What does this fold into?
Amino acid sequence: MFTSTDFFPKDVTYQTMINSGDFKLIDDFNLKTAIENHYSNYKIMLKDYERLDIIHKEYLGKYMIENVDFDIMKKGQFGYNNEKLFKNILQSVNGALMIKRRATEQGIKSCDSLLKILP
It folds into this structure.
C-alpha cells in the first residue's frame, strides 16, 4: 500500500581517496570541484530521502495501526478514523515525495555532468 525507497550512495572510492590523500593528486581543478560537488549532493539527497522515511515510520505507520479498521474496510466501508489527520499525513507524504524527486533529478544531473568531465 505505502512504500518507501532507500538511497545508499556508493562513495567508498571517494572516501578512500580523501582519507589516503590521493585526492590531492588530481591536478584538474574543475574535475576536483565537480567530484566534491557530486558527493556533497549525496548528503543532501540522503536528508531528502530520510524525510519521507521519517513520515512513513513515525506518522503514517502509527496512523495505520491506531486509526484504521481493516475489518470495516473489508466490508467495503470507510475504515479511516480521524480523516483530517490522515489527509495531513498524506499531504506531508506528497510534499516529501516531491522533494525526494527533485533530489533524485539533481543527483542524476550531477552524475551526468561528472561523467562529461571525466577523461
